[in-house]
Amino acid sequence: MAFIEDLRRRILLLDGAMGTMLLSGGIKGCLELANVEQADVVADVHRAYLQAGADIITTNTTCADALCLKQYGLQSRSRELAKAGAEVARRVADEFSTTLQPRYVAGSVGPTTRNLTLANDIKAEELSAAYADVVGGLIEGGVDFILIETAMDAMNVKIAVEECRKIDGEIPIIVSAVLSRIEGRVASGATISKFLEDIPLEEVSVVGFNCSNGVKTAEASLKMLAAQSDKPIVFYPSAGQPMVAVNHFAKDMEALCRAGLLNIIGGCCGTTPAYIESMAKVAQCWRPRKTGKKN
User: Fold this and answer.
1) d(CA 253, CA 50)
2) CATH code, domain carrying 35
3) Nearest CA to 237 among 226, 256, 225, 111?
4) 3-state secondary structure of 195
5) How far apart are CA 79 and CA 190, in angstroms?
């Protein structure tokens, strides 16, 4: 796959937050509905990130699963909204893509509203069906890979990966977890080692973290991940609370790239095209993390 080969050659730049941009643009209610009703606004967000230098744009589908959509009465439209989000992103990515700099579309699959390990009001079959609709719509809409992001529960990840593989046996899969405030643990409380052990890692192309609280708080956890897995690593943190200034954010990310820890960098909650633009030079200046042959 071109994407897998590319991330071995250079550090790829992921986009920033979608919700931040849509909300600032006046979108209200269900953000995923904008994929159909205000697709031009979603497309403009994608363009802003590509103009800032992003190699990868993420579909506006983090909450496109039926469980998240239920609060809006839109659960029956999950696959439709996921497909529409993928089609918008694909169209814009193709506008910017060149032979020298291909642009990729990441199909965002969020954590839903249930963690299967803890929830007592949902069965695995229901969660599987929810993931199947989103993944099916994303792949039909033309994404380059599936991004299972903001992951908290290894059981959810396992089911999401299984649904991906039922639909497409070849498409790359990235898994990105949320870190706990306790060093070396993901949000569910599991250690990084346990989380890796409990997900179908052999089916995953890239692992890493997103969201969390800024850049610096994740450094030790990233080093632990690098020591325990030879997979390429993605890291796209939030702007932090309080928000870290653009230049400081980029400087902190550069330190991690200099240390040879990362293959894909970007931003999560609160980040904007300005954050991504500030990291474009960082991505160009440093070599990606060296990975094992099995990747």
Assistant:
1) 19
2) 3.20.20.330
3) 256
4) helix
5) 31
